[in-house]
Amino acid sequence: MSLTLEQLNTPPLPQACALLDGLYEHSPWIVERALAQRPFATLAALQQACIRVLEAEGQATQGAAEVALIRSHPELASKAAIARTLTAESNHEQSTAGLTHCTPEEFATLQKLNADYKARFGWPFILAVRGPRGTGLTRQQIIATFERRLHGHPDAERSESIRQIHRIAELRLQDKFGTSSPFHPALGQRVWDWQETLAAHGEPDYLARGELTVTYLSEAHRACATQIAQTMREAGCDSVTIDAVGNVVGRYEGEGWETGNPVSGPDAKTLLTGSHYDTVHNGGKYDGRLGIYVPLACVQQLHAQKKRLPHALEIVAFAEEEGQRYKATFLASSALTGSFDPTWLEQQDAAGITMRAAMQAAGLPGTLDAISALRRDPVRYLGFVEVHIEQGPVLNQQQLPLGVVTSINGSVRLLGEVIGLASHAGTTPMSMRADAAAAVAELILHVEQAATHRHRGSVGTVGKLEVPSGSINVVPGRCRFSLDLRAPTDAQRDALLADAQEGLRAICERRGLRYTLEETMRASAAPSSPEWQARWEAAVAAQGLPVLRLPSGAGHDAMKLHDILPQAMLFVRGENNGISHNPLESSTAEDMDLAVRAFQHLLTQLA
C-alpha cells in the first residue's frame, strides 16, 4: 500500500518511523530525528530534513557518524548480494541493476574494484545503482563509475558517498509513496526522456565514439530542430515555427484564444522562456536543453487539463549559444534582441563555409532582413525566465536540487605574453634568469589570491599557457597566456582586472621582463530582475526547499535577453559534482520534476 504524507504527519512518532523502515541502511535514527520535525508539506521537505540531520550529526562527531553510515552499506555484487541476503531494499536495487547476474569477468572486475577501493578509502563503494532516471544503470556504467571514483581524493569521495546515500534514500522514499502519489516525478521523468531522445541526434564521428556534439546547422543540429518541433506540437503548443536563424519557437496562447476572444492575443503580453539546443564538442545532454523541456512539460500539463493562462507562453529553443562552429556566441538570442552582427554572415567555419551559406543550405533565408525581423518588441513581453543545469558544484555540495540565480557574472577575457630571455638551463644561475614562464606562473597565483581573498565572489582563470619553441633545457624566453576574469557586478570585475594588471606589471618589473596584454572580450553582468527573482524564490520555497541564492559564473541566453527584458534564472543541480560541458553531465528525474513544479508555481503567480 502506498504511503501519504498524512500517514507520516499524524501518527505517534514510533508508528511513523516504522513506515519508513529501511530508508537509510541500518540507520533508523536519521528518519526518527527528521520526523520529529513534522509536519511536512512535501517529500522534498522531508528529504531535506533527513539530509540536515545527518549533516548536523556529522559535524558533531567530526565526520564519524557519516563514515559509520557509509560502512553500514554492502559492497556491490558481493557474495551476500548474489545470495540475496542483504536488506530487502539493497537486494532490490542491486537486482534492478543486474548486479546479481554478472558475467564471470564482470564479477571478477567488481571484486577487484571492491578490494582496491576499500583498501584506499576504508569503506565500501557507494553508488545509487538505479541511476538518475531510477530505472537502473548498466553494469558497464557502474564499472566505469567505480573505476573513475577509485582515483578520487578521500575527502571528496566521502562527500560523494554521502550524496549517493541520500540519492538511494530518495528513490526508496519514492517507492514507498508509489506512482499514484502527487509527488511521483512523472513530469521529471518525461523531461529526462525527452532529453535522452534528443541526444540520439549527434554528429556521426562523435556518436561513433559514444560522444555528443551538435554544432550550429549541422545535419545533427537540423535533426534536433525537427525533433524539438515535433515534441512541441505533441505537447500541445498552438503554433510551432523554425525561424530565420534556426530557433524553434513554440507558443501556447492564453485565455480566450480558442474562442477567438483572447485575453492574450497579438496585442497582449507574453512570457518568454527557453534555452539552447546546440552543444560543445563532446558535451552533455542537459546543458541548455533542460530549459526547453521544463516549460514544455508545463505546457503539456496545461493542454491535457484544457487550461489556459492569462498570458501566452513562448518557448524558444535557441539554435546557438556555444559559439563552436562560428565565432558568434549567442547569435540565436542576439537575433531576438536586435543585436545580431551583420558581419557574422560572412564568417567562415573550419571548412570555409560562410554562415550565410550554411543557413541557406539548411533552408533558411540567410539574409539580414529576415534575421532583423526576429527582434522582439519588449512592450509585448512580461519578461524572460530560463531554467538551466547549474554547471557547477554549489548545489551538489549543498545537497539542494534548485537554486535561484542572483546575477549572471560580468566577464573580461585577455590574451597576454611575457617576454624575457631564452638561455641555457644548465649554465644560467637562478638569480640571473629572465624566465617568462616563471613570471606567468606567479601571475596565476596572484590572480588566484585576488579572486579568493581581495575580490570575494569573483573567479579568475588562466586557461591557456604556451612557451613558443620551448625546449626541456632552455629557460623560457617567451610565455603566452589567456586570462578569464568574472564577477557578479561590472565594478567588481573591473576591480579584479585592475588588480591582475597591477600584479602583472609589478611581477615583470621586479623580474626585468616586458609584457603585452590585449583585451579580447568584455561582457556586462546581468543582475536578475528583483521581481522575477522573487517569483523564483517563492516557487522554490513552495516545494519545501530552502532558497539558495547564487550567481551564475557561466554565460546564458538570459544574459542577452537582459538587454531588452527583465530576466531571472533557476538552476537545477547537476550530478558528478556539477560537471558540465562533459559526457558526465547529469541530473536526476526527481530534480527535474522539482524544476517543473517550480515553473508551474511561477506561472500560477502570474495568473
Automatic annotation (TrEMBL):
**Top EC class per UniProt?**
lyase
Q: Which residues form the Peptidase M20 dimerisation domain?
A: 415-507
Q: Per its UniProt entry, which superkingdom is the organism in?
A: Bacteria
The residue stretches assigned to a coiled coil in this entry are: none
Q: Which UniProt keywords apply?
A: Hydrolase, Lyase, Manganese, Metal-binding, Purine metabolism
Q: Which molecular-function annotations from GO does this UniProt entry contain?
A: 2-oxo-4-hydroxy-4-carboxy-5-ureidoimidazoline decarboxylase activity; hydrolase activity, acting on carbon-nitrogen (but not peptide) bonds, in linear amidines; metal ion binding
The record ties this protein, via SUPFAM superfamilies, to: Bacterial exopeptidase dimerisation domain, UraD-Like, Zn-dependent exopeptidases
UniProt cofactor(s)? Mn(2+)
Oxo-4-hydroxy-4-carboxy-5-ureidoimidazoline decarboxylase domain: which residues? 14-174
**Under which EC number(s) is this enzyme classified?**
4.1.1.97
Q: Which GO terms describe its biological process?
A: allantoin metabolic process; purine nucleobase metabolic process; urate catabolic process
This protein's assembly is summarised as: Homodimer.
Q: Which family does this protein fall into?
A: Belongs to the peptidase M20 family.
Q: Which PANTHER family match?
A: ALLANTOATE DEIMINASE-RELATED
User: How is this protein named in the record?
Assistant: 2-oxo-4-hydroxy-4-carboxy-5-ureidoimidazoline decarboxylase
The encoding gene is: uraD
